[in-house]
Design goal:
It is a single chain. The protein is mainly β. The chain has one domain. The chain contains one helix and six strands. It has a four-stranded antiparallel β-sheet with strand order 2-1-5-6. A hairpin with a 2-residue loop joins strand 5 and strand 6.
């Protein structure tokens, strides 16, 4: 499923509580689309661990961790730098 080439071709409804976006994650062993929520204020991008493994990453092997505050708990999640992330017609390498 190719992504449209122009960011202006994506209608967004700011009234919706979650804005779903199709995202292409690229790693050393391939690429995979995932549907993710757009968060314009996020410091990090969260991706499913099974997807990261499928495209060639081992999150458990990462020594770098970030504190993540979930509902009622504090967790430390691995940091993985992907080959590229593409969404809304924009490709960002090494994210």
């Amino acid at each position: 499923m190719p992504l449209p080439s122009s960011p202006s071709s994506f209608p967004l409804d700011p009234a919706k509580p979650i804005i779903p976006v199709d995202v292409l994650l690229e790693g050393p062993n391939g690429r995979q689309f995932v549907r993710m929520a757009l968060d314009t204020g996020a410091t990090y991008t969260m991706a499913p661990i099974h997807t990261l493994r499928a495209i060639g990453y081992d999150p458990a092997a990462s020594k770098a961790r970030v504190e993540f505050i979930a509902a009622g708990s504090v967790e430390f999640k691995p940091i993985v730098t992907l080959r590229s992330v593409q969404a809304l017609g924009i490709r960002i390498p090494h994210l």
